[in-house]
Amino acid sequence: MENLVKRNGGFFPVVNTFFDDILSTKDIFDWTDKNFTAIGSNLPSVNLKETDNKLEIDMAVPGMKKEDFKVEIDNNMLTISSEKEEQKEETRKKDNYIRKEFNYQSFFRSFSLPEYIDEDKVEASYKDGILHVTIAKKEGVKKKANKTIAIK
Fold first, then answer.
1. Rounded to two decimals, what is the model's pTM?
2. 55, 57, 58, 64: CA torsion to nearest 10
3. According to the model, what pLDDT value does residue 20 have?
4. Which of 41, 49, 70, 114 is 20 to 30 A from 22 (CA-CA)?
5. pLDDT by position in tens, the chain (length 152)
6. In whole angstroms, what is the distance from residue 80 CA to residue 146 CA?
7. Which of 71, 70, 57, 76 is nearest to 118 (CA)?
8. Burial of 118 (0-12, 13-18, 19+ CB in 10 A)
């Protein structure tokens, strides 16, 4: 339901209406990442979880295959990326008809990992549109306790 808005008559009522409409749009200045799909980005959503003995990363990437992903750890930096290209061609000689379509999708996400992870104990799996990465922590290494900082 639209709100009732009083418009100024003025000399250029159409121009005034145009600017009133643009400036009253609430989402025009909202640059948060809550709506990447509206601006054409294909950055997948990620859930991060830390337990006593491992780090877990779940990434929502439906419609892909496990072969589409590249998961790497280098110098305590986890990188998950994908590049997927599709090409379709349809031809009907009888109608002298040719249709070609192509699609290209890619993303790149990187995460800085803590010093206490074990780079040799990393597992990744893909099921039901979720890429699941598990990274074990080194044994005997304790995580530093959280420190609360007082705000002045």
1. 0.61
2. -130
3. 56
4. 41
5. 455 545 555 555 555 555 555 555 555 444 444 444 444 556 889 999 999 899 999 999 998 889 999 999 998 899 999 988 888 888 888 878 788 888 878 889 999 999 899 989 999 999 999 999 999 999 877 667 788 999 99
6. 28
7. 76
8. middle
Cα–Cα dist 95/125, whole Å: 46
Q: So what's the pLDDT on residue 37?
A: 45
- Give me the residues paired with residue 108 across strands: 81
Question: Could you tell me which of 61, 49, 68, 64 has the C-alpha nearest to residue 135?
Answer: 49
Measure the CA angle with vertex 124, ends 123 and 128; round to 5°: 145
Q: Which residue has the tokens 């929502």?
A: 60
Q: Are strands 97-112 and 46-50 parallel, antiparallel or unpaired?
A: unpaired
Q: What is the DSSP string of 35-60?
A: GGGGGT--PPPEEEEE-SSEEEEEEE
CA distances from 96 to 72, 75, 88, 92, 102 (A): 48, 56, 17, 6, 20
Joined tokens for residue 144: 């530093």
